[in-house]
Amino acid sequence: MMLLRRAYRAPQRAAVLRHAADALVCHHLHLSRAAPLCSAATPSSRMPRFSEVKRAASLAQIYKENTTLISSEEASSFWSALGRLSARDPSQQRWIRHHHDVFDEVREHTRTLMPQMSPTELTRSLYGAFLAGMDVRPTWSAWWADAGRYIISGLKDLNIKQMSVLLQSFHRLKPPPEQLFEAVVREIETRDLSELTALDMCSLSLRIGNLDNPSKPLMSKLATAAAPWLHSLEPKLLVMLCSSVSKVGPDAPLFYSGLTEQLPLRLPNMEPRPAAIILQACMYMDWMPMPAKIKLLDTFVEDAGGRLELFDANALSCMLQGVSRAPFDVPHNPETLALISRLIDVCTYRIEDFKPTELVNIARATATIKEKHKIRSPADFYRALSLQAAKHLHALSSFEITGLIWAYAKAGVWSYSLFGPLMKHITPKLHLFNKLSLLTLSWACLRLQINSPEFTNAIFEAIQRRGNEFTPAELQRAEENLKLPTTPGLPRAASQDEELY
Predict the structure, then answer these.
(1) Percent of the chain with pLDDT over 70
(2) pLDDT: is 424 or 10 the higher one?
(3) What 3-state DSSP class applies to 499?
(4) What is d(CA 18, CA 205) in angstroms, rounded to the nearest whole number?
(5) Which of 269, 270, 418, 497 is deepest in the core (most CB within 10 A)?
(6) Helix residue spans in 37-118 (DSSP H)
(7) What is the pTM of this model?
(8) Distance in angstroms (rounded) separating the CA atoms of residues 443 and 480
(9) What is the spatial distance between Cα 481 and Cα 382, in angstroms, rounded to a whole number?
(10) For residue 54, with 0-12 CB atoms within 10 Å meaning exposed, 13-18 middle and 19 or more buried, which class applies?
(11) What pLDDT score was predicted for residue 100?
């Protein structure tokens, strides 16, 4: 009570009140150890519940002090409360991330309760642990493996929404639990999808699309079931659905015909970002009829032309990627080329707004557009892109750096302002590049005439270290691409940026 009295005089009353309330909960719980906890208590008994606690540290303290009294239902309530705190309160999320070892004792106790948990309780616990970030902790891998073994036998007792949550809870694990994913997908395929709401349907499609081996039959079933809702789906749900379908490529004629009919009516009224993401997703749909893609692109060009400056960096990136996949080999709106030129100009003067990954995406998209249209490279764009990308090399993965190099090589553009620091940055890290990336680097050296023995030797040594992964033909091709130059140094004058092709 003294803490509560002090709270009224404290400058930060809200924080002190939360601390005082948690302290009282812990104290009350300590005095009532013999009584059941959490949801087992009736509301009239005023027993503390995990859902009432507002700090992760207090949750852990309550659990540890009452381990012998906590049932499987209460353990499930604990993980659910921890997940909610992590998802809703950034300060608690940071605390959990930096003090995850505090929950080791809780983890081991929960593992002993898993055989007693119902499938619903276990699903609830797993989702809470996922929200709290426990799935990315190496010391938790055995815990997740045990949970997967227990839950797989109880899938028939879960509804579709709960199984969708399971897919999300496990999707970040390395290596992924393929056996569990296959069992969940098989079980969902036997269910009636009519019980799902629009949100549940789109969430499930997104989670299916995120799997390494997504099920085309299930995605076809989902897309067909969602077709009647296309006229009324919120933009964010339409984004989820279109993005998932574009990844999996299901055979769903009703869905594609629905998109062809509804999107031209809905795109002009959408915010720029969802409109651009939907355009990108549709252009990546191999099963979508070509006339439908052309009609959608024409509609988008007419709508976006007047409000291009309102697009944020993410929307510009998605739009450029979508346009790069458009079917340019057939007649279409002549205004499209003018829009592409304007789009590249906008990306140029707003280049600092793009995240490192988005820089790679717009580089790849521009290279593809350049190849399709046989146009000269936009010099101002590549100059700005090179300077900006050089600042963020440390933030790019080996895969993204390979994509950036591929884009410049594909466009035939040499930029010393980028490749100078880039070669210095990746030379000592080539052991992190996989087989395909190393082959791409060797091809880029030939394409851009990179004349640096240190760099080409490092690539060849990295390939030799992985020699058992390459076929003799691949090794020979890489060696030919990386023939040692007779004159050391960079290909041209150090200050010169130019287009080679």
Answers:
(1) 84
(2) 424
(3) strand
(4) 39
(5) 418
(6) 56-65, 72-88, 90-98, 104-113
(7) 0.76
(8) 9
(9) 25
(10) middle
(11) 77
Cβ-based neighbours of 487, under 8 Å, separated by 6 or more: 451
DSSP-derived letter for residue 36 is P
- The label of the residue with tokens 């964010």 reads 236
Residue 47 confidence (pLDDT): 36
- How does pLDDT run across 79-109, given as a tens digit for each residue? 998 888 888 888 888 888 888 778 888 889 9
Among 186-195, 251-260, 332-341, which is the least confidently predicted range? Answer: 332-341
The CA–CA distances, whole Å, from 481 to 42, 272, 283, 353 equal 74, 43, 34, 36
Alpha helices in 284-374 (DSSP H): 290-304, 313-324, 335-349, 356-373
- φ and ψ at residue 214, rounded to 5 degrees: -65, 150
Joined together, the tokens standing for residue 34 give: 């013999």
Residue type, 170: F
Alpha-carbon distance of 309 to 269, in angstroms, equals 16
Question: How far, in Å, CA of 17 to CA of 22, rounded?
Answer: 9
Q: Give the orientation angle of helix 435-447 with respect to helix 453-465, to 10 degrees.
A: 150
| Torsion angle (degrees, nearest 10) of CA 332, 333, 335, 339 | -60
Summarize pLDDT for 441-496 with one digit per residue, the tens: 999 999 998 888 889 889 989 998 887 888 889 888 988 888 755 444 445 434 45
Where helices occur in 227-334 by DSSP H, the ranges are 235-248, 253-266, 272-283, 290-304, 313-324
pLDDT tens digits for 362-419? 999 999 988 877 667 788 899 999 999 999 999 999 999 999 999 999 998 988 899 9
CB 104 within 8 A of CB 139: yes
3-state secondary structure 411-460: HCEECHHHHHHHHHHHHHHHHHCCHHHHHHHHHHHHHCCCCCHHHHHHHH
